[in-house]
Amino acid sequence: MTQPPVDTRFEHPLARLTLRRYPRLRNETLRAWDGADLYLLDEYSNLGAAASGAPLVLNDQCGALALSLRAASRPEQDGGDVYSSGDSWLARAALQANARDNEMDLPDDRWRWPLEAWPETPSVVLIRVPKQMALLEAQLSRLGSMAPGTPVLLAWMDKHLPGGLVDRVRHYLGPLTLLRGRHKAHGLRAEVPAHPVPKASYPTRVAVREQDWSLTVHAGVFAQQQLDIGARLFMASVPRGVTGPIADLGCGNGVIGMTAAQRNPGVPVTFCDESWLAVESARDNMQRYLPEETAHFHLGNGLSGLAEGPERFALILLNPPFHRGHAVDDRVARMLFRQAAQRLLPGGVLQVIGNRHLRYDSILQRHFAQVRQIGGDSRFVILAASDPKPV
User: Fold this and answer.
1) Superfamily name and number for 204-388
2) Is the whole-model pTM more than 0.90?
3) 334-367: pLDDT as tens digits
4) CATH class of 9-191
5) pLDDT at 1
6) 3-state SS string for 12-79
7) 124 in Cβ contact with 50 (< 8 Å)
């Protein structure tokens, strides 16, 4: 049964906008905002005069927060400035695309990546609680550089309440107020304390005993404390003797691409991810352990828009996500499979690991004439796909 088109009309007393997710997909099933966005905008409005000045928005998914605040800005008080910070390239691309759709000017310098400087004196900080608690902790620990008393608002969808959230926020900010629920969401109100804010213990280090590596893993990057079992299994399957460029697609901390670089010296490896902190983790780890090898780094939507290095590859290594945010969705994997089919050199191979129940083999067969299993265990399967079918 065909689903009705997803609603793109965002309405709140602060703004009426047209909002879409990014990348723009046909038959999109997910809205570009949710109740947590509405909740934060409600609480911002409740601050009244206390919200005068330029707000800072953290983890905006598609621009619902930043664009609503910009639409409601009072130039005589705050100059229309709204600052955003987040880890997701896709979130930033959605913000920019939605700003264009709504004919709103959004200066590039109003966006800050996670380790870049934030404005020191925002009027208020609005935080969508991210899926990765490590990222939230790293963000909360940075609030100590701001003026004591700066209001901090947090919100999350009830169905996505992280365990121990209230205690974690209290650890960094001290006294807080748990707000009433609405829009199927809840929130907290706190403020930057006068006492020093505790430092978060990020980045972490993850041991890779097979290679005697201790990898940098920035906050929010998958597998913060130890190498996950899927990555360890995938490492063992990385081939030797590759003669053309290699891509680590969805690189995370870079361990798979690093293994490929070590086993194929002199072959350039391109590390790709939509997480800024993942790309920075991979960059740091390559520079520490394999500085003599040629490496390129691409922050973006998979292999789309490669800015440096080769555009086609003899080997693409991929451990695809099967979520978009909290939602289970295999569209990201499907998109990456299509991209890989278009980016392989003649005779090239896409090597994929996934949970057996996801049945990636049937999806890959739509894009490749040859799909075979080359490894795995009771939980995971490793597939090699080659001979892309004509588009």
Assistant:
1) Vaccinia Virus protein VP39 (3.40.50.150)
2) yes
3) 999 999 999 999 999 999 999 999 899 999 999 9
4) alpha beta
5) 45
6) ECCEEEECCCCCCCCCCCCCCCCHHHHHHHHHHHHHHHHHCCCCEEECCCCCHHHHHHHHCCCHHHHC
7) yes
